[in-house]
Amino acid sequence: MTTIIRRNERSWAIDLISKINAISTTNDLIIKRAGGESTISTGRGNTMFPDVVLYGNKEQSIILQGWELKMPDVPIEDETFIKDAQRKAIALNLNSVSSTTSHF
User: Fold this and answer.
1) pLDDT value, residue 71
2) Are 52 and 38 a contacting pair, CB within 8 Å?
């Protein structure tokens, strides 16, 4: 039996978070840290998990932006994708959202 290993949203998010943290550690940027899959709860039964969250401090208490990632099979203009990213931005009290699809 042959083992097949494929990239997915989580592996992509881990790579992005690692790179952002490496860059922010060695440079004086507004982004001080990146994380992901944090639980956002806005009430009973309304739990969300942003793929990447950019923080303005190392303690991760100042949220600058949340990113929603999708693989190439999801079009960037997909309405569900956009609404999910917007819903997470509203829950985080942010006035912007970043949604992107992978091209690897």
Assistant:
1) 86
2) no
